[in-house]
Amino acid sequence: MRGANAALGAAGLAAFLLLAEAVPRLGLVEEDYFPPAGRIADALGTEITDGAFWTALGDTLTGWALGLAIAVGAGIVAGVVLSTVPYLREATASTIEFLRPIPSVALIPLAVLLYGTELESVLLLVVYASFWQVLIQVLYGVQDVDPVAEETARSYGLGPWARIRHVLWPTALPYVMTGVRLAAAVALILTITAELVIGAPGLGARIAVAQTSQAVPEMYALIVVAGLLGLLINVGARSVERRALAWHQSVRGEVAV
Amino acid sequence: MLDVRGLRKVYEGSGRRVEAVRDLTFTVAAGELVCLVGPSGCGKTTLLKCVGGLLEPTAGEVFLAGRKVDGPPPGMAFVFQEYGRSLFPWMRVGQNVELPLKQKDLGKARRRELVADALASVGLADAAGAYPWQLSGGMQQRVAIARALAYEPEVLLMDEPFAAVDAQTRADLEDLVRRLWRERGITVLFVTHDIDEAVYLGERVIVLSASPTVVREQLKVDLPAERDQLSTRVAPRFAELRTHVYERIQAAKRGVATAKTDTPPPH
User: Fold this and answer.
1) Is the CB of B52 less than 8 angstroms away from the CB of A155?
2) B152: three-class secondary structure by DSSP
3) CB-CB neighbors (< 8 A) of B49 in chain A
4) Can you tell me the distance from the alpha carbon of A98 to that of A93, in angstroms, rounded to the nearest whole number?
5) What is the number of CB-based contacts under 8 A between chain A and chain B?
6) How far apart are CA B27 and CA A26, in angstroms?
């Protein structure tokens, strides 16, 4: 079953690449703007031999990882504090609902004013966008604590800190993992966007340079790299999730009793 | 050992005022096994949570070994009906049993010893490495009992612990509780809606009224200490006692006022 699915997936991808090769060659689209897949692959081959490409990739990954780490850390701490301190959740709910929908890209002018084209600009946008993903999931996760589990912990004399560590945190963990996975994807989008629009060094800036210098196949090659990056991040996040939640019913599957 | 005086609990919220427990006074002597039985919905769980310090009573007091209970006391362990939710699915069986011990200042070796001993006495010595959800319902409740035993409580509170397991498992678990009680000399307060279970297990049965709850009767169970599922349950005295309790509960459901008696029915 699994092998059959993989074979189907590979066949689908091959068909797509074939189509991407054939359509421009047949003149159905302008070849200057939509180069055939083969030429994009050639450009990609040239890119990966260029040291500047790897520097750009490193910059992008740095912005992504730092931004994500800050957002996850802040989101978890804020979420736990908001939901464990009485009345704080109610007091902050409307503010959160107002701030959360503000698109991160709307903060680009602010980021430029504050930090120019430095890494901090990228971080501001990435952190702002990813933070809410994590925070909202933590808030939901904490609400999911089973009253029986909580009473069990209390009856055995577990103090507030021990209850956070042994009951609240494991209960919220599946939600946190979902939040981190969503935040990882959003963080990549915002990193590339910031580089593309603001010109902070990285893959995004390199795409912009390729575009303005009419290096169309190179531009597509870089877009493919960005896509592969997104794919890897998602696969990585899922495997971390499966390891951390081996006990959870979404992962453990059916168990013979 | 356990002294409940004038306990009253009123729930208030969203415009409704529910008096779950009106006035309960009873004592449980050290080393006694007492069953509380009452019609369903009579506030048994509320009562037990007040005794365990999980709920604050509206009035009245609970004393454990002379000290007033105002929060879960260290000498008390609680076994819940919902074993599946009371055990933590993210911890293995051994870790579940050990967790409460980490709150007590015990060395690692002593903790291990207690965990192994408790699991062995419920017949799950080799399940320490399993996750609770890999075990059957009856085994999960055994783990919950082991967790309570390892905590070395003076008083064990059990809230309808066998209501959610099948009849055969239930019989085994009842015998397990009797055995552990006799071996370890723990004081046990066992809440159930099952009259047969109350009579089979208890040294004394406290019959509660329908909500708002008061004590209707306290009945000494004069069955031999050595009980077994086959012979005890067909003994004429068992039938007499269970019939007596059954009548009391039926009367309680109808709300008929009967004189409070503390004497067992005549032989």
Assistant:
1) yes
2) coil
3) 151
4) 9
5) 67
6) 93
> Are both B42 and B159 inside the same structural domain?
yes
Mean pLDDT of A221-247: 92
Q: Is A156 on the interface with B (CB under 8 A)?
A: yes
SS3 at position A28:
coil
What pLDDT score was predicted for residue B43? 83
* Contacts B89 to A, Cβ<8 Å: 247-249
Q: Which domains does chain A have, with CATH numbers?
A: 58-243 (1.10.3720.10)
Residues of A in contact with B76 (CB under 8 A): 155
Nearest Cα to A75, choosing from A132, A142, A141?
A: A132
Euclidean distance between CA atoms A47 and A36, whole angstroms: 17
Residue B216 — pLDDT band, cuts 50, 70, 90?
confident
- B225 & B257 share domain: yes
B159 plus B265 within the same structural domain: yes
Do B138 and B160 belong together in one domain? no
Label residue B263 by pLDDT band (50, 70, 90). low
- Determine, yes or no, domain membership for B50: yes
- Look up the pTM and report it: 0.83
Query: Other C-beta atoms within 10 Å of B74: how many?
Result: 16
Examine the domain organization and report whether B66 and B182 are in the same domain: yes
Q: What's the mean per-residue pLDDT of chain B? A: 89
| pLDDT tens track for A135-145 | 999 999 999 99
**Cβ of A255 and B133 within 8 Å?**
yes
Note the pLDDT tens digit of each residue in A102-130. 999 999 999 999 999 899 999 999 999 99
Query: Confidence band (pLDDT; 50, 70, 90) for A253?
Result: low
Task: State the nearest Cα–Cα gap between B116 and chain A, in angstroms.
Answer: 19
Which residue range(s) make up the domain with B108? Answer: 89-152
- Please say which residue of B152, B186, B202 terminates a domain: B152
Domains: count for chain B: 2
A155 chain-B contacts, CB cut-off 8 A:
52-54, 72, 76-78
Q: How far apart are CA A217 and CA A210, in angstroms?
A: 9
Provide the percentage of residues in chain B whose pLDDT is more than 90: 62
CA distance linking residue B118 with residue B115, whole number of Å? 5
